[in-house]
Amino acid sequence: MRTQVGIVGAGPAGLLLAHLLHRAGIDSVILEARSREYVENRIRAGVLEHTTEDILTAAGVGARMAAEGLPHRGIHLRFAGRDHRIDFTALTGRHVMVYSQHKVVQDLIAARIATGRPILFEAEDVAVHDIATDRPRVSFRHAGSAHQLHCDVIAGCDGFHGVCRPSIPAEALTLFDRVYPFAWLGILAEAAPACDELIYANHERGFALLSMRSPEIVRLYLQCAPDEDLEAWSDDRIWSELAARSAHEGFTLNQGPILQRGVTPMRSFVAEPMRHGRLFLAGDSAHIVPPTGAKGLNLAAADVAVLARALERFFRDGDQAGMDAYSATCLDRVWKAERFSWWMTSTLHRFADQSPFDRRVQLAELSFLAGSTAAATALAENYVGLPLNLA
Ligand code: RFL
Ligand code: PHB
After folding, report:
1. Nearest ligand to the CA atom of 285
2. Out of 50, 276, 287, 295, which one is annotated catalytic?
3. For residues 65 and 35, is the Cβ–Cβ distance under 8 A?
4. Which ligand is nearest the CA of 38, by number?
5. What pLDDT is recorded for position 32?
6. How much distance in Å is there from the Cα of 304 to the middle of ligand 1?
7. Residues near 315 by Cβ (< 8 Å), separated by ≥ 6?
8. Residues 338-347: tens digit of each pLDDT
9. Which of 107, 146, 286, 334 has most Cβ atoms within 10 angstroms of its Cβ?
10. Of 371, 377, 370, 350, whose CA–CA distance to 362 is shortest?
């Protein structure tokens, strides 16, 4: 089997890359370890930056997002009994789009299938070889037989636990890692959002986030221990904790049947550089952010937009300048998102070792955000998405 770009992973990064390449006349094969049903129903992120919305729209895969997505023009910060709205549109002229990651994945899989080009689900024993040469290949098993995929380039879009990053010699990578001393207990519930925008709450009992997926479905999170036992959380306990942490005068949380629950660990991670020879890492395979800034999916989309442009130059003109600049171009933006996600996380959560001094500084930071247009604008600019330079 031969293709121009072998893509490992059918998450948002791999699927969007395949689609952008197809539109540029570049052939690819996607290899995915899981089943189509599994990846199409995996509940993860829900907020798209305006840059991601623009990329999906320009690539012709934005129709359902435009119809079903919820444009949000601000968020609420709750702390010390106050509720302060950050008005994105007034501060930046932009909005974000609340639209589920699993719907983005469904839309991209439908677009891929419509092209007739290969996407192989349940690929086993995927391994990359000869990545430092200009004839890399991917070996894998599919439907009971062994295959070799010969490529010009491999895109490692296989997430944090994938096989591509570990295939790069350890001495060629520098890893930056921070694990936070808490996690998020997340639920999906059948209830109407109590507010038409997201609420981020810094409360004495810990952080809470009230988000949504549609006018009928909410996505709600509670700061919890990294090893939290879900069995210890009855529905009643979850609802009363959410209500306590988001409490505000005149505000009532709507409750309903809990459809799904899980615990998400929190970490910051970057691998540099994002390229080794003909292997390019994109999305979670290269970097992880804690979800507080809603950046994970958006960084994946930005990486592959840069990579698609670089590969277009390479396959059209033999020009390697874009490929050579890929890692540095992405990392400049990645580190800004790492900083923002770390800062949102640090500002909004309770830390077990937080001294009374630290707590006062945290509340002062929130009060400053509520009182300063400059500080609020900095938050808003980062949240809606920093400019993406696709030169
Ligand atoms: P993905 O989505 O993890 O996709 C990688 C794909 O590669 C496949 N794979 C392999 N395929 C073939 N061979 C192998 N050896 C393979 N190993 C893995 C996997 O099955 C998968 O289909 O990475 P991608 O495309 O880079 O996209 C990144 C985003 O998915 C991610 O940044 C966000 O979802 C992060 N994230 C969240 N971000 C937010 O902004 N808000 C959230 O609320 C939020 N919640 C989450 C999250 C990530 C989670 N993970 C990864 C544990 C909740 C969870 C549970
Ligand atoms: C979500 O809706 O899942 C979500 C929204 C905002 C975040 C994180 C997660 O910061």
Report:
1. 1
2. 295
3. no
4. 1
5. 98
6. 14
7. 4, 24, 25, 26, 152
8. 999 999 999 9
9. 286
10. 350
Which among 72, 102, 203, 287 is annotated as catalytic? 72
**Which regions of the chain does DSSP assign to beta strands (E)?**
5-8, 28-31, 47-48, 70-72, 74-79, 82-87, 96-98, 119-120, 124-129, 137-142, 145-150, 153-156, 174-190, 198-202, 208-212, 217-224, 258-272, 275-276, 279-281, 287-288
* Residue whose CB lies within 8 A of the most ligand 2 atoms, among 195, 209, 260, 297, for a mutation test: 209
Whether residue 164 contacts residue 16, with contact meaning beta carbons closer than 8 Å, is answered with no
* Domains by residue range for the chain, with CATH: 5-71+94-176+267-351 (3.50.50.60)
Ligand 2 lined by 282 (C-beta under 6 Å): no
295 is catalytic: yes
Reported pTM: 0.97
**Phi, psi angles (nearest 5°) of residue 255:** -110, 160
Scan for tokens 């936070």, then name that residue: 180
Please, are residues 275 and 323 in contact by the beta-carbon 8 Å criterion? yes
DSSP state for residue 278 in the 8-state scheme: T
pLDDT, residue 333, reads 97
Ligand 1, residue 284: give the atom nearest the CA: 26
13 lines ligand 1 (CB under 6 A): yes
Residue 391 has pLDDT above 80, yes or no: no
364: amino acid identity, one letter: A
pLDDT, residue 267, reads 97
**From 44, 49, 55, mutation site for ligand 1 pocket: most ligand atoms within 8 A of C-beta:** 44
The total of other beta-carbon atoms located within 10 Å of residue 90's CB is: 14
**pLDDT band at residue 355 under the 50/70/90 scheme:** very high
Active site residue 103: no
Rounded to an integer, what distance in angstroms lies between the CA atom of residue 68 and that of residue 215? Answer: 10
At 390 the pLDDT is 83
Number of H helices, E strands in the chain: 12, 20
